[in-house]
Please model this.
Amino acid sequence: MWRLVEHGRHDDDPAFYFTEFSAPEGCLIDDRAAWKIANPALACRDPFLSEDGLEAVRKTIREAVFRQLRLGQWVAGVESWLPWEHGTPAASSEECIPASA
Model:
């Protein structure tokens, strides 16, 4: 899929139609205005997607997966088992888990 997105972003192939909907970079995952930017179906008269549905999904999946699947953002770490906030280095050695001998 990423190769198709890159191809479409180059906009140099008249035979390839590409439209991308994504929330603004760095938006909060509970920003409902960003949800509407990334999900034009929310604005339909008879939407098949609802804000309540997105809220339920947001609470049950990892942030990286929500960003990818519901905000249209290409992120790294979708398959990682640690949440994003745990990916930052420890502030001191006391916070590190000692290696086993």
Remarks:
- The two ends are 43 Å apart (CA to CA).
